[in-house]
């Protein structure tokens, strides 16, 4: 979890790539979202109720697996003060 700007935290969600990312049912952005919300709760932080978040498919870390076969999705969420 990284502080991106005031009230926005960026999560780097690591996922093992087992097939082409296109059409993969194994990597769900809803799963990524839920993991990030749980991490916020662990840190006693609360998501802002404006329902604002973003996904960033940063090349090459999302398109090219690392040595362990993982790819990384950037996921940002706005949080309350």
Describe the structure.
- By secondary structure, this protein is of the alpha+beta class.
- About 15% of the residues lie in helices and about 30% in strands.
- It contains 1 helix and 4 strands.
- It has one helix spanning about 30-40; strands at about 1-5, 10-15, 55, 70-80.
- A 4-stranded antiparallel sheet has the order 1-2-4-3.
- A hairpin with a 2-residue loop joins strand 1 (about 1-5) and strand 2 (about 10-15).
- The longest helix is centred in the middle third of the chain and has 14 residues, at about 30-40.
- The radius of gyration is 13 Å and the shape is elongated.
- The model has no long low-confidence stretch (mean pLDDT about 75).
Quick structural gist:
Helix content is 17%, strand content 32%. By secondary structure, it is an alpha+beta fold.
Major sheet characteristics? 4 strands, antiparallel
The structure class reads alpha+beta
Structural Rg: 13 Å
**Proportion of helical residues:** 10-25%
Main β-sheet, spatial strand arrangement: 1-2-4-3
Mean pLDDT: 76
